[in-house]
Each structure stands twice: as C-alpha cells, then as structure tokens.
Automatic annotation (TrEMBL):
SUPFAM superfamilies: alpha/beta-Hydrolases. It comes from the Bacteria. InterPro entries: AB_hydrolase_fold, Esterase-like, Mycobacterial_A85_antigen. It comes from Aerophototrophica crusticola. The keyword Hydrolase applies. This is Alpha/beta hydrolase. Residues 1-26 form the signal peptide. GO terms for molecular function: hydrolase activity. Pfam families: Esterase. Keywords: Hydrolase, Signal.
Length: 296
C-alpha cells in the first residue's frame, strides 16, 4: 500500500475511534430515574389547577415479608426541590437501618406555572400587598392536599394515616405552622425549616395566641430549624447575615411561646444550623428533623 494511503487509513481509524468515544448526545441519553419512584398527575377540583405527586417507596416495600406493613408518609411542599433532597439524604440511612422507613411524597408546583408564582400563592395563608400577586391561597391548597393528594396516596400505597408528616421550607414552613394552628388533625408531625415568620407582619404569632386562647392542647411533634446566618447582626462584615428579618430570633420566640403553653400532646424542637443561609438550611435541617422523628 502506498505510504499516503497507509497514512490516510491511520487517520481514518483514529477519527472513528475518537467519534466512537464521544458522549451520547443529551437528547439521546435516557433520563436518570429514582428507584421505587412514581409520578401521579392530579387535576385538582379544589383549586382548578394540575399538580404532580412524586412518590418514592422505601427499600423492602415490595417484599412479601412486608405485605402487611404500613408506613409513615412525608408530604413535602416545594416538591420540585425538596423531594430530590429528601430522596438523596434518606437513601443511605434507610439502607443502613438508621432511619425508620417512610414513603416520600413531593408536592409539585402547579403545572405550567413558574415555581415562585405557584408557591407564593399556595403556601401563604394571608394576602400580602407587598408581594407580587397572587398570595393568600393556602386554604385552597390545603384542601387539595387533604381532599385529593392524601386520599390518592392512601388508596394506592400502604400508608399509615396516623403518621403523616408535613415538610416545608421558607413559605412551606409558614404554611406548616399555619396548618398546625388551624387544622392540626391532618398531620401527626412537622419538619419546618426557615419558616417565614416575617410574613404578613408576623401574623403567625397572633395565630398561635388565638389557638392557645381556644385550646388546651396541640397534639403534634414540631421540628423547626433556621440557619445561623438567618439573623441580623448590625456591623457584621460577613455578607451572609440577613439584612432584615431576624428569623433565628423569631424561631426562638415561637419555640418559647409553644413551650410556655404546657400542651400535654406537644413536642417541639428548634435548632439553629450553624454555617447555613436561607437557601442552604433545608438539607441539613431536614436530616436533623428526620433523625428526631424517625431515628432508629
């Protein structure tokens, strides 16, 4: 074979080898899927919008030995974010037997809507003129959860209706405390990180006082966590501190108020997660809350 043909053959072979090792184009690659997971679409009559429920079952759920077993269920608001975090951080503890096995249910944002628009409406109990509309749709959203989402989950899966946990961060934490003070019978426990105590001129504190005036008990386990930087420190050089809204102080005040009620059926824990800001508190706080509620 002439020299130039040999060289051409070598070049062609190298080109084929290089092309053969190129990554598969993104549009041709299969999506990553969580094991033991499913997605249910709910066209809600309660709110007139469509939501998805992201469900992940614990290891061993399908084993014949567990056929009669019912599991606690965690309902996670802001599910487009919180479900992925919860799935990841519970995987190893579940497999290692360090956490009681639970079913995870992520509650999506309304389909076809921007996530911030959806959560600002659905997770806020009262209108707030200082924020972009709409706000104050928590009542209808709670109807969706309690009348449509929960019944679907409890029909389809071996869920323990006496052991429901509501999980929320930021507006979701606000929503969770509002639920606890207005309709506490729906959930047995709560994991709430960085609750928006500041919302609507700190109306949560007035709501808590109103509940205390009418009731002698609050049967719930409530875990709260706020980041160490979610407080105001005038003169601090670290830019991670809040400029407004002392959420650490507000959480402490709420925990003290609840403790002062001496409710026989209430257990409260409030942690400050050192080193986290508003956007990073949830993963750590969620793990702490899970350990407190479901630690083996």
């Amino acid at each position: 074979m002439p020299t130039f043909l040999r060289r051409a053959a070598v070049v062609a072979a190298l080109a084929l080898a290089i092309l053969g090792t190129r990554p598969t184009p993104a549009q041709d690659a299969p999506p990553f899927q969580l094991e033991r997971s499913a997605v249910h679409t709910v066209v809600s009559k309660a709110v007139g919008r469509t939501y998805q429920l992201y469900v992940k079952l614990p290891p061993g759920y399908g084993d014949p030995a567990n056929a009669g077993r019912r599991y606690p269920v965690l309902y996670l608001t802001d599910g487009d974010y919180t479900f992925q975090v919860a799935s990841g951080v519970t995987r190893l503890p579940h497999n290692a037997g360090k956490l009681e096995h639970v079913i995870l249910v992520g509650l999506s944002y309304a389909q076809g809507e921007d996530g911030m628009v959806s959560r600002r409406r659905d997770l806020t109990p009262w209108p707030n003129p200082s924020l972009p509309s709409p706000t104050g749709g928590a009542r209808a959203y709670l109807d969706f959860i309690t009348k449509e989402a929960i019944p679907l989950v409890e029909r389809q899966y071996r869920a323990d209706p006496a052991r429901r946990t509501l999980v929320g961060q930021s507006f979701g934490g606000l929503f969770g405390l509002w639920v606890a003070f207005t309709e506490p019978g729906h959930f047995e426990s709560y994991i709430l990180t960085s609750p928006s105590f500041w919302y609507a001129d700190e109306a949560l504190h007035a709501l808590e006082a109103a509940h205390a005036a009418r009731h002698k008990d609050l049967k719930a386990r409530i875990y709260m966590a706020t980041g160490g930087f979610e407080t105001v420190k005038p003169g601090a050089k670290d830019p991670r501190y809040n400029k407004t809204n002392d959420m650490v102080g507000a959480q402490g005040a709420m925990a003290r108020r609840l403790g002062s009620r001496k409710y026989p059926g209430l257990k409260v824990r409030a942690d400050v997660i050192e080193g986290t800001v508003h956007e990073t508190t949830f993963p750590v706080g969620f793990v702490h809350g899970m350990t407190w509620l479901y630690g083996g």
